[in-house]
Design goal:
The structure is a single chain. With 326 residues, the protein is of the alpha/beta class. It folds into two domains: 2-141, VC0802-like (2-Layer Sandwich), CATH 3.30.2130.30; 147-325, Rossmann fold (3-Layer(aba) Sandwich), CATH 3.40.50. It is 32% helix and 34% strand. The protein is built from eleven helices and 15 strands. It has helices at 14-23, 44-49, 67-76, 97-110, 145-148, 165-174, 192-199, 211-223, 256-262, 265-279, 295-301, and strands at 2-7, 26-31, 34-38, 53-64, 83-91, 114-115, 122-129, 132-141, 182-185, 203-208, 229-232, 245-251, 280-290, 304-314, 317-325. It has an eight-stranded mixed sheet. A seven-stranded mixed sheet has the order 11-10-9-12-13-15-14, with helices on both faces. A hairpin with a 2-residue loop joins strand 2 and strand 3. Helix 1 (14-23) packs across helix 6 (165-174) and helix 10 (265-279) packs parallel to helix 11. The longest helix has 15 residues, at 265-279. The chain is elongated and about 70 Å long. The model has no long low-confidence stretch (mean pLDDT 94).
Length: 326
């Protein structure tokens, strides 16, 4: 079956990479803020994992973005005999969404379908992107309010500069973390990455050299009823066996206090990367965030670079997001 993902505009590359990491289908079409994949089947649990998509749609047709083509595509759709609502989303320039909704609704009404915008049992969504209209049945609308309910300032323990929940979830997804596998965050801070991993059923273990952070992370995990193992330890001397960790995801620290404690930021990264490489299983994946490029340090530790993304936070901070494989 073909699925269309309505991507968020927070990044040009991260939403696409997140979808492909979670669903692993074959790319059928790539449009501005729309990705179409061919997958064997749809698992709604996977759809609900996504952080940087607005909707997942089962594709019925992809046609030219003009009203005549959209009308004829809607006339050919085979749908169940239920109450149907029609919604359209314009991405960039193109037809007005209200005009597209009217045309699709008219085509379906003429075929005898019951249009009901207040109590629909099925929603048809049209994504207007570039010169194309991707049309299909909504399978999942991602509830972004759930992420807002876990924003850093809402949690029991807060510290400035941490990842927002949507980005933390995207990092977990980019890492390919699966339920019943073990994810390590060796610079766990307030526990944001661990929290998002635990909420989708991934086993979690975190550590930090700062006792206050570990206690705060424990409070945050307990508040959301997420179980995990947290310890105070130096990321340069991890107390885990060789190849005992399935996946690593972490926001590498920066700042003067860190450099004073470790000698230098570079030294800290190098020694921590050596330890991460040691504890990660063969072919395991690590997603590492930093405020600077560190390709040479990755290569020195033995990691192979798979992908790189950049995430603009504010005018003085753009995060480098690196996906690496052992």
């Amino acid at each position: 079956m073909k699925l269309a993902f309505e991507l968020s505009g927070e990044s040009t590359s991260i939403p696409r990479a997140e979808v492909r990491a979670v669903f692993r289908g074959t790319v059928v079409r790539e449009l501005d803020r729309v990705l179409v994949l061919d997958v064997p089947a749809y698992d709604p649990v996977l759809g609900e994992r996504l952080a940087m998509s607005h909707a997942v749609i089962e594709v019925h047709d992809i046609c030219a973005q003009n009203l005549a083509a959209i009308y004829h595509a809607a006339r050919d759709m085979e749908l169940p005999d239920v109450r149907i609502a029609v919604r359209a989303k314009r991405i960039g320039n193109g037809l007005r969404s209200t005009d597209v909704e009217t045309v699709i609704g008219k085509a379906l009404y003429e075929r005898g379908y019951h249009i009901d915008l207040t109590r629909p049992e099925l929603t048809i969504r049209a994504l207007l992107s570039g010169h194309s209209c991707v049309m299909g049945s909504v399978l999942t609308l991602v509830n972004r309010a759930h992420f807002a309910s876990r924003s850093p300032r809402v949690r029991p323990f807060f510290y400035p500069g941490v990842l927002l929940p949507r980005m933390a979830r995207a990092v977990v997804n980019l890492a390919g973390a699966q339920p019943h596998t073990l994810l390590l965050d060796p610079f766990c801070g307030t526990g944001g990455i661990l929290l998002e991993a635990g909420l989708v059923g991934v086993g979690i273990v975190g550590s930090d050299a700062d006792t206050r952070m570990v206690h705060g992370a424990k409070r945050n995990l307990e508040y959301y009823d997420v179980a995990g193992e947290l310890t105070v330890q130096d990321a340069r001397q991890l107390g885990f066996r060789d190849q005992s960790i399935d996946t690593i995801a972490t926001d590498l620290p920066y700042g003067r206090s860190v450099s004073i404690r470790a000698g230098s930021i570079r030294q800290l990264r190098e020694e921590a990367l050596d330890e991460m490489f040691r504890v990660l299983r063969a072919r395991g994946r690590a997603v590492l965030l930093s405020h600077v490029a560190f390709d040479d340090e990755l290569e020195r530790a033995g990691f192979r670079l798979e992908a790189r993304h950049r995430h603009y936070v504010h005018k003085s901070l753009t995060r480098e997001i690196v996906v690496a494989r052992k």
